[in-house]
Specification:
Layout: E1 2-6, H1 10-21, E2 25-29, H2 33-40, H3 51-60, E3 64-67, H4 70-74, E4 79-82, H5 97-109, E5 114-118, H6 126-137, E6 144-148, H7 158-163, E7 168-172, H8 175-185, E8 192-195, H9 197-228, H10 232-240, H11 261-274, H12 280-304, E9 312-316, H13 331-341, E10 345-349, H14 354-361, E11 366-368, H15 372-376, E12 381-384, H16 389-392, H17 396-402, E13 407-410, H18 417-422, E14 426-428, H19 437-450
Helix pairs in contact: 1-3, 5-6, 9-11, 9-12, 11-12
This protein binds uridine-5'-diphosphate-xylopyranose (UDX).
Uridine-5'-diphosphate-xylopyranose (UDX) binds near residues 155, 215, 249, 250 and 261.
Length: about 450
């Protein structure tokens, strides 16, 4: 099939590569000339395992091209995917200006019947407006259909996620559009949910909000475990064995971040209030997520004091999760900024996210280390902020020798309690009984009992 993908961000670029790899002729379009030039030279604008190889292979085999000209991009396409960004605006709602812009350009350049499909995460009702904008910009009366086909890929495993999705959601008011899209995905043999536009749009938000709810739920359980002397990791294992619950997304942390969950949860909450409904549970999910990093910082301040002047803190992890260089809405960066605000000198390291972090953090009071061992040298405390596997595999005997102090604040429950404590570290984890957390738990319990 001939396919055009508008937008070459995470969703768009991966979609171009995977659609082409399935044997389709694909044109990727982006208004950012620098980005398109870069991709044409085989350089990926994002780090994503396996992506560069799939793009290179399909470009070489002639199925995948890139352009900045939307007219050229859509000319031969049967299906046009809108994969542009939908960032959060000042009110918490999704900023849809890129979606409207793409719809306008598609309308102006439409040269025959096409199916216009939104893959970006967009609030309920967006695709109906896309149809209106396309129609308003047509130069002559050309038929087209609109569909919603949300993408569920995760950064860090996006190529594999798109190749092997759990389900395909096809929302449209046109059976012809749904049948054509079914052909595109036919070889996958995954369940297809056929529905109307609004239902498809809602499925994506409901899914992301539910996953965020799981994270906030386990973060709350972790708080109770910490105080009650239970181990949240084992609690999550035990819960996860129930097939109705599942083990995924029950990893406590310093809170969820990234370019999707914070904005999508806020946007769904905004949709609920727009519909005169207060989605209480979601409000709680967001509050818990904010509070989680405060607890983490409280532990550090509780041990090192509120004035961190003269303290050196090593931070391992900058990206919002492992296996990505993406630092958008990364809680790690927020924690680092807060520690810097309290006067700490920071030594930071991330396997992939350092360059992107420099734009956000600058250089003041921050040393960008060349590796983890370089980061921990002379540090009073070590903070683990992202769950990169290589942090788990460090020689902590060597880390102990290199550090000045002995505090480890593990924001991802990455390390083995016994190994770390046997080496003489004071270890703080999230919701696990360690020599560090016990102290905080008792302090908290005391203050609650006294209040
Ligand atoms: C998410 C959705 O998973 C994906 O389906 C959607 O298409 C886009 O948004 P992504 O943002 O790439 O994907 O990352 P994800 O793996 O979901 O993690 C989001 C955040 O939650 C990260 O900060 C991660 O560290 C955190 N997280 C995840 C936890 O704190 N605990 C968990 O158990 C899982």
């Amino acid at each position: 099939m001939n396919v055009c993908v508008i937008g070459t961000g995470y969703v768009g670029l991966i979609a171009t590569a995977v659609f082409a790899d399935w044997g389709n002729n694909v044109v990727g379009v982006d208004i950012d000339k620098e980005k398109i030039d870069m991709i044409k030279q085989g350089k990926m604008p994002i780090y994503e395992p396996g992506l560069a190889e799939v793009v290179e292979k399909n470009v070489k085999e002639g199925r995948l091209t890139f352009t900045t000209n939307i007219g050229d991009g859509i000319r031969d396409a049967e299906i046009v995917f809108i994969c542009v960004g939908t960032p959060q605006d000042d009110t918490g709602a999704a900023d849809l200006s890129y979606v409207w812009g793409a719809a306008e350009e598609i309308g102006k350049n439409l040269n025959g019947y096409k199916i216009i499909v939104t893959k970006s995460t967009v609030p309920v009702g967006t695709n109906e407006k896309v149809a209106m904008i396309v129609k308003d910009n047509l130069k002559k009366d050309i038929p087209f259909d609109v569909a919603s086909n949300p993408e569920f890929l995760k950064e860090g495993s996006s190529v594999e996620d798109m190749r092997h999705p759990d389900r395909t959601i096809l929302g449209s008011n046109s059976q012809k559009a749904i049948d054509t899209l079914k052909q595109l995905y036919a070889h996958l043999n995954t369940p297809v949910v056929e529905c109307n536009l609004r239902t498809a749009e809602m499925i994506k938000y409901a899914s992301n909000a539910f996953l965020a709810t799981k994270i906030s739920f386990i973060n709350e359980i972790a708080q109770i475990c910490e105080r009650a002397g239970a181990d949240v990791s084992v609690v999550a294992d035990g819960m996860g064995l129930d097939k109705r619950i599942g083990r995924a997304f029950l990893y406590p942390s310093i809170g969820y971040g990234g370019s999707c969950f914070p904005k999508d949860v806020a946007a769904l909450y905004r949709t609920s209030t727009d519909q005169a409904y207060d989605f209480k549970l979601l409000r709680g999910v967001m509050e818990v997520n904010e509070r989680q990093k405060e607890y983490y910082l409280d532990n550090i301040v509780g041990e090192l004091g509120k004035n961190l002047d003269g303290k050196v803190i090593a931070c391992l992890g900058l990206s919002f999760k492992a296996n990505t260089d993406d630092v958008r809405k990364s809680v790690a960066l927020t924690v680092i900024q807060r520690l810097r605000g309290l006067g700490a000198a920071l030594r930071v390291y991330d396997p992939k996210g350092t360059d992107n972090s420099k734009d956000h953090l600058g250089d003041a009071n921050i040393y960008y280390a060349s590796d983890s061992y370089d980061a921990v040298e002379g540090a009073d405390a070590l903070c683990i902020l992202t769950e990169w596997k290589e942090f788990q595999e460090l020689d902590f005997g060597k880390v102990k020798e290199l550090m000045k102090g002995n505090y480890v604040f593990d924001g991802r429950n990455l390390l083995d309690i016994n190994t770390i404590q046997d080496l003489g570290f004071t270890y703080f984890a999230i919701g696990r009984p360690t020599n560090g957390t016990k102290k905080i738990s008792s302090k908290f319990t005391r203050s609650v009992l006294l209040s």
